[in-house]
Amino acid sequence: MQNQIGAVLKVVGSIVIALGLLLGIIGGSQANSFLFFVTTFLGSLVTGMALIGMSEIIRILEVINENIPKRRRKMVRSSNDILFDVSPQSMSTKEEDDIKEFLQKHNVDIEKIIPTPKEDFFIIKTSARYILIEMGSFTPKIIDEEKWPEDLVGWFEQYNQD
């Protein structure tokens, strides 16, 4: 998907360069001055390249915007208010042992286990990142970062600020 403003800037930049070349040739030949041609063409070349450069910046920003996870853009505090006022669930020693045993099998070093307000969900802090684990079934399950529940993402961002 190409941004219309970026496309227009690229076309306008190309037209400015072409017109500068054309006007430089015509004006330089009429004035019989090579200096007129060079200054006219270089002025239009710089202006046109600046416009084309801006169109490229817009294109790159579009690519970055498309790659930002949608859940981060949709974060609205009102949808997460339910979890903000709830204290985290308590963690039993069995759950803690199960989590540690599970993560040892996956060669993950645990720095901290953070209980969440959502039942059976725990956030694990490692040296490199945070991992969400669901304990709802008989074995722990790692939840991909893109699939974290919206309300937990909001709660965790709030939790990290405190």
Describe this structure in words.
Keywords: Membrane, Transmembrane, Transmembrane helix. The chain crosses the membrane at residues 7-28, 34-52. The chain has 6 helices and 4 strands. It is α+β, with helices and mostly antiparallel strands and 162 residues long. The chain folds into 2 domains: 4-67; 73-161, no CATH class. The chain has a 4-stranded antiparallel sheet with strand order 1-2-3-4, with no helix packed on it. It is rod-shaped and about 90 Å long. Residues 76-80 have low confidence and may be disordered.
The percentage helix is: 55-70%
Q: Tally the structural domains.
A: 2
Largest sheet data = 4 strands, antiparallel
Q: From the alpha carbons, calculate the radius of gyration and give it in angstroms.
A: 29 Å
Outline type: rod-shaped
Low-confidence region ranges? 76-80
Could you report the average pLDDT, rounded to the nearest whole number?
82
**Measured distance between first and last alpha carbons:** 40 Å
Oligomeric state of the chains present here: single chain
Beta strand %: 5-15%
SSE string, helices as H and strands as E: HHHHHEEEEH
Observed structural traits:
162 residues; 4 strands; transmembrane; membrane; alpha+beta; transmembrane helix
List strands and helices in order, with pairings.
Layout: H1 4-31, H2 34-67, H3 70-73, H4 77-84, H5 93-105, E1 112-115, E2 121-125, E3 130-134, E4 141-143, H6 150-161
Antiparallel strand pairs: 1-2, 2-3, 3-4
Helix pairs in contact: 1-2, 4-6
Nutshell version of this structure?
Keywords: Membrane, Transmembrane, Transmembrane helix. The protein contains 6 helices and 4 strands, in the order αααααββββα.
